[in-house]
Amino acid sequence: MTALLQTFDLRATDNANAPTIAIKDSIDIAGYATTAASRALADAPAASEHAEVVQRLLDAGWRITGKANMHELAFGMTGINDFTGTPVNPQDPARIPGGSSSGSASAVGQKLVDAALGTDTGGSVRGPAACCGVIGLKPTFGRVSRHRVAPQVTTLDCVGPFARDMHTVVEVMSAIDPSFDAGNARRDVSQVRVGVVSVDADEQIANAIAAVITRAGLTARPVELASMKDAFAAGLSVINAETSRAFGHLVDSGKLGADIETRLRAAATTSAADLDAAERVRRRFTDDVDRALDQLDVLLLPTMPALPITLEAARAGTSVIAMSSLIRPFNLSGHPALTLPVPLDNSPLKAGLQIVGRKNDDETVCAVAALIEARLAQTVET
User: What is the 3-state secondary structure (H, E, C) of the chain?
Assistant: First the structure.
């Protein structure tokens, strides 16, 4: 069962009906080592205390049933891990589960747990959620505590939930974020103002997104985010620099997977000039998104531009970095973003619809996702 690295039963009450949740292995659970699914950290001491999000879940009555597997050091998009094993993609076992929160998405998709926590630095919640056909939310940057979450220093990373339905997403957010307003996240947003971002995506994906907007009864207007491609490149520069600072000392340890060793070596070449340029793009793209949301409530776009590739193709060296082209920019800007599974014509697989909202308006993102979820369910029933 490679979705979960360890299984246990941690809870604050004896409620046999308590909802279950798995925790990504970059988040501390007292008494268990946080290894980030890496041989290089396999001998790490047990955490001395819970991460704040873990304690909040326990206080809210959740039952923690295990540590979720992940792409090593949270630095990859495939989810392939030759040390701890590669989690199964519940939509199609021949395809990658996505990274880095692969185990979290897989565990939810396989119904091993009701929910899971992951982290999203460059799409690492939304990417695997879209690959595995489940819901994943990246909250507004800084809104959810990252106390005792690796890496310690970041300008991109967010802790966020996975679930199979929006009710559970709201329940998890209510537990881990004391400022989250569940009532607001469940309010009527039938008059929502929607913008559809113009992006490059496979025709099958683009058609699915358009069909969902129509089926949900939403009236949308087109939106151009001129600096989106620049934001993708800038996000890569920032994550490379920050991951190199956090884990670069492990290079040459002889304990890293070949892909991580290669990526960390390349990341170490990120220059101060690269970061200065990235920060200029961050400001420009953030302003672009903020301006678009001045007149709109949410932005819609595909989560990924194409379906996940096969494990065989990934192992053969097919590049996957473009998987994050539509999600990584919103790590750079810090806006909340959620992926919702939506049906594809003539395919058993589901694609991801990404919903982006104003900073600190995660509740509206959730409310719009719940509206679309409900209307899609109605059309299936009729």
Answer: CCCEEEEEEECCCCCCCCCEEEEECCECEECEECCCCCHHHCCCCEECCCCHHHHHHHHCCCEEEEEECCCHHHCCCCCCCCCCCCCCCCCCCCECCCCCCHHHHHHHHCCCCCEEEEEECCCCCHHHHHHHCCEEEECCCCCCCCCCECCCCCCCCEEEEEECCHHHHHHHHHHHCCCCCHHHHCCCCCCCCEEEECCCCCHHHHHHHHHHHHHCCCCEEEECCCCHHHHHHHHHHHHHHHHHHHHHHHCCCCCCCHHHHHHHHHHCCCCHHHHHHHHHHHHHHHHHHHHHHHCCCEEEEECCCCCCCEHHHHHCCCCCHHHHCCCHHHHHHCCCEEEEEEECCCCCCEEEEEEEECCCCHHHHHHHHHHHHHHHHHHHHC
Name all domains of the chain by residue range, CATH numbers in brackets: 4-230+272-381 (3.90.1300.10)
Q: What is the pLDDT of residues 306-360, one digit of tens each?
A: 999 999 999 999 999 999 999 999 999 999 999 999 999 989 999 999 999 999 9
